[in-house]
């Protein structure tokens, strides 16, 4: 019997024993006990123990070969960006020119450099890292930028997060200073009657506004709720409490508000402080708000108990009202629209497998821990199914569950893949947390699919329809492909000591930030 199969058999025995323990131990305090309509709810345990599938054993040499292959992919993505789009936001790999999504306004901000730099550093690509660092030092001048509205959320997670990560990893103060200069340009967006920031801010004038489509001028939960890690850390490394105060204020407001059934709607009006439309989602518009509750607690070395409590309370409501199981046995988070479930899950929502795994590890003695891990395994498996049920073996933007279809996109507008990381992100966490070799195998499947369908001579492209044998390509190499997708793949085939989860917490763009008090790279300012 090979090592991998042995470990698989062992893990089934352990899981069976473990499931039994949790069944008896947590039966009484299950959040499902208070359900009104028992038949509509998913019973615990959520996933059944399945037969061990054969996972081929891979030796150390093969692991290193795979890791080197992923590094080569990063080099291909970077070199082509340098060649055809240097200083622009993103690369168009087929038309071989720069590209700028509306989130970056019309400005060439070097988004791929800001987002990809820590990955270069982590992979030991020293020459490329220095090249990016020099551009930030010499070419990026935020005060010389012309008028343009940029997304507060995107600039925070990609630019401020990326720069702070580089500061933590290297100690180079250039990155801290640039991160602070950029964050200062975001601050005017918080000047609303409630202190909930608007979505867009003009770097030049400081005027800010919300998207017209967002529930009567509302701010978006996943945007204003995804600032905490970067702003709290920025305060600690600069000694300026301004940034932490801003996000603490958002937290207080959210905590004090009444939540419908304990759930957080995706929209909040920054003028009135009232919820907008009651839409709830673990995918687009909701996702990273939940992520930052758990991770703020981890970042604080488990001191920020308010964040943990809010996370556990939110998850209890989400598991109760949004978790579903298909007739084929697949777990998924449905969306809610005015109390009605829409049986659709976004690719974006696939980060939740890894998040719940992390929640389970971070508080192993809690009564929720077993439940979280159980759901984490089920969701990660479903997200893999959404990949496996396509021709390209890459997953669609959203997938649905109906009487006839499971984990497949139905609408043309949901069939695209834009090099997103979330499924691979969950493989990474689940590998680190369970050591089940299946997650490495699934990650390798994704590498092969990316190489086959997304690699072009000029870089990597997204696809318009993952179900087609020869899908049209979208001609965009997203900056998060370098920041997240390739980083998580690389870490999946690296030793656990590289960015240990005991010392680092990843922001929602996969930029590692140090955990306070335990990680010497925290670099807190002397006060
Ligand atoms: C990234 O910018 C971040 O992961 C964000 O939280 C959600 N969307 C993209 C990648 O899909």
TrEMBL record:
InterPro entries: 6hp_glycosidase-like_sf (IPR012341), Glyco_hydro_47 (IPR001382), Glycosyl_Hydrolase_47 (IPR050749), Seven-hairpin_glycosidases (IPR036026). Gene3D superfamilies: 1.50.10.10. Its EC number is 3.2.1.-. Its cofactor is Ca(2+). Keywords: Disulfide bond, Glycosidase, Hydrolase. Pathway: Protein modification; protein glycosylation. PANTHER family: MANNOSYL-OLIGOSACCHARIDE ALPHA-1,2-MANNOSIDASE IA-RELATED (PTHR11742:SF6), MANNOSYL-OLIGOSACCHARIDE ALPHA-1,2-MANNOSIDASE-RELATED (PTHR11742). Belongs to the glycosyl hydrolase 47 family. This is alpha-1,2-Mannosidase. The gene is LOC108566967.
């Amino acid at each position: 019997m090979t090592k991998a199969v042995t470990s698989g058999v062992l893990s089934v025995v352990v899981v069976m024993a473990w499931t039994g323990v949790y069944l008896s131990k947590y039966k009484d305090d299950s959040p499902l006990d208070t359900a009104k309509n028992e038949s509509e709810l998913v019973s615990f345990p959520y996933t059944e123990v399945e037969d061990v599938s054969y996972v081929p054993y891979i030796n150390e040499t093969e692991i290193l070969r795979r890791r080197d292959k992923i590094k080569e992919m990063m080099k291909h993505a970077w070199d082509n960006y340098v060649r055809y789009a240097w200083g622009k936001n993103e690369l168009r790999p087929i038309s071989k020119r720069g590209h700028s999504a509306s989130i970056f306004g019309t400005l060439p901000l070097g988004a791929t450099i800001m987002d990809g730099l820590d990955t270069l550093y982590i992979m030991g690509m020293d020459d490329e890292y220095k090249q990016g660092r020099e551009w930030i030092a010499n070419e990026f001048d935020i005060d010389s930028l012309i008028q343009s509205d940029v997304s507060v959320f995107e600039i925070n997670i990609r630019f401020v997060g990326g720069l702070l990560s580089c500061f933590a990893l290297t100690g180079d103060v250039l990155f801290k200073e640039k991160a602070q200069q950029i964050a200062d340009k975001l601050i005017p967006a918080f000047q609303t009657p409630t202190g909930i920031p608007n979505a867009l801010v003009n770097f030049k004038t400081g005027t800010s506004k919300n998207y017209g489509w967002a529930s009567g001028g509302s701010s978006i939960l996943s945007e204003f709720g995804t600032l905490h890690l970067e702003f709290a850390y920025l305060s600690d490394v600069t000694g300026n409490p301004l940034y932490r105060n801003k996000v603490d204020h958002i937290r207080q407001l959210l905590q004090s508000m009444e939540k419908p059934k304990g759930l957080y709607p995706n929209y909040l009006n920054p003028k009135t402080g009232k919820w907008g439309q009651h839409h709830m989602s673990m995918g687009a518009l909701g996702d990273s708000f939940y992520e930052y509750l758990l991770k703020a607690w981890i970042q604080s070395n488990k001191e920020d108990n308010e964040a943990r409590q809010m996370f556990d309370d939110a998850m209890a409501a989400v598991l109760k009202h949004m978790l579903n199981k298909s007739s084929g046995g697949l777990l998924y988070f449905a969306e809610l629209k005015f109390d009605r479930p829409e049986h659709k899950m976004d690719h974006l929502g696939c980060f939740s497998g890894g998040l719940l795994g992390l929640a389970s590890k971070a508080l192993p003695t809690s009564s929720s821990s077993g439940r979280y891990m159980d759901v984490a395994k089920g969701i990660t498996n479903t997200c893999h199914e959404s990949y496996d049920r396509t021709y390209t073996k890459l997953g669609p933007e959203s997938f649905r569950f109906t009487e006839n279809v499971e984990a497949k996109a139905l609408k043309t507008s949901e069939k695209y893949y834009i090099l997103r990381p979330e499924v691979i992100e969950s493989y990474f966490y689940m590998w680190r947390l369970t050591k089940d070799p299946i997650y490495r195998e699934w990650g390798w499947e994704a590498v092969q699919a990316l190489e086959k369908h997304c690699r072009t001579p000029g870089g990597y492209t997204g696809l318009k329809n993952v179900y087609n044998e020869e899908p049209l390509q979208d001609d965009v190499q997203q900056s998060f492909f370098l920041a997240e997708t390739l980083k998580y793949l690389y870490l999946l085939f690296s030793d656990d000591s590289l960015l240990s989860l005991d010392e680092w917490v990843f922001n929602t763009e996969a930029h590692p930030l140090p955990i306070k008090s335990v990680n010497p790279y925290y670099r807190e300012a002397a006060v």
